[in-house]
Amino acid sequence: METKIIRGDPVRDRILAEVKAEVEQLKEEYHGEPGIAFIGFGGVPLAKYNVPMHIQLATAAGLRVTSRIMDVDAGEEDLLEIIRAWNADDSIHAIVLLQPLPPHLNPVRIVNCISPVKEVEGFHPQNMMATMIPDIGAGRYPMCLPEALTEMFRDAGVQPGHDREWVFLLDEAFTGNTLTKMIVRAAASRVVPDDSTVTYVNRDSENMVAHCKRADVLVVVTKFPEYVSPGWLKPGVCIIDIYSNLVREVPSKTDPMRLVPVIRGGVNPDSVNGIAGAILPIPGGLMTVVMAILFRNTVIAFRNSAGSQARGNIKW
Asked: Is the pTM of this model over 0.85?
């Protein structure tokens, strides 16, 4: 059995092209462009790569970008002061708090401070509630994580199917984090078929391997690179690897004076070749599309702010 590698780059590039075309239309229609603001933290692993990448791609898509890089020991009130100012700034339509945060900050309190109108990832409690209970009709944007997964499955022609067992394998760092637990459950509510079995298992659980062996779909969120063993997998399993780990930095092949990151997820794609039916790997998998959905939601936020009910060429 050949394992299907589901790459995010083609989907990301398609969405970014749509966003860029839509922004050009908005400039003609409203004589303005969507504004997005990023908050990142120096000293956090991957931050020196992750923050510039978001800024570069957002700028290339035509968005007006504002950013603030905070010291890793910045206080919560300092951060909230910036968020409150951006909430009141009509030129900013989306506020993005780049994860992970330094451990001394409370992510729930901080995300809750972002205006739900400008919180376009789907992490604000109001927006997560709208994701989990769509019948209340309060949704402004699709939550980025499940929307990206749906787009990638559709593009690759992959359908996990009904009446399957989904297993979410998470570290204690994630199961013990209120915001992460809310995000995982909200995202699962959108992508897991109603007739499927869902299990959330801590990586430290003594029954962890047994749970993994039953999984038809295995979602891995771990800070331990290439942790999952091929022997834990059910043949044909679909693996969704989510968390990016910086394992080292190496000289660039084109410019030896410049360092580039080596990124790994919780699963080594080569090790599961011939066992898994499909895998969304790291790097190059789900999170690249999440970023593109984030920019698409920013365009929707701009249109909502402008009072237009139409969403132009972008569909969701």
From this structure: yes
